Amino acid sequence: MYEGSFFVYLIGPVKGCSYDTATNWRDEVVKMFPSEITVLSPMRGKDFLRGTAHLDIQSQVVAHDIVARHLTTPRGITLRDRFDVMRADAVLGNFLGADKISIGSIFEIAWADLCKIPIILAMEDRGNQHEHPMVRECAWHIFPELEQAVRCVSGILLP
Hints:
Helix content: 40-55%
Number of strands: 5
Number of helices: 6
Number of domains: 1
CATH topology: Rossmann fold
CATH architecture: 3-Layer(aba) Sandwich
CATH class: Alpha Beta
Strand order of the largest sheet: 2-1-3-4-5
Structural class: alpha/beta
C-alpha cells in the first residue's frame, strides 16, 4: 500500500448466488473507482469456485490448494472478512435485487458500524430483503443505483 491509498470493502449476497452473480458486480465496481481506491472483495482468491451455480460453504467443492481450503472454511471466511472490514476506509454494499437476506453482509455492517467506518449502500427504496431500521440507521447513505453509491464513496474518501 502506498501513502494516500484507500481500501473499500464490498458487501453483498454470496451464499446461494452463482459465482458470476457474486463476482460480476464487484469486478465492475473495481473499474468505476479511481486508482487511489483499492477494493477488498470477500471473493478474492476463490477463482476455483468459477462456474459454481449455487455458492454454499457447507457444500462447496473443496479447493485443491491448502491455503484456499483454509480461507473457505467458516472460520477462514469470518476471520478474513472481519479483518478486511476493520481495515477498510469505507464499506460499499450492493443489495439491489437481493432475493434473500445476506446474513454475512449484516455481520459486516455491524462490524463496520462498530468501527465507525462509513457504510454506503445500493438498495431499492422499498421492498428489499435488507430493509430494516437498523440497516438504514447504520448506513451513512443509501442510493437506488450502484454507480451513485460508488460516486458517494469516492466523494467521502478522496480529497
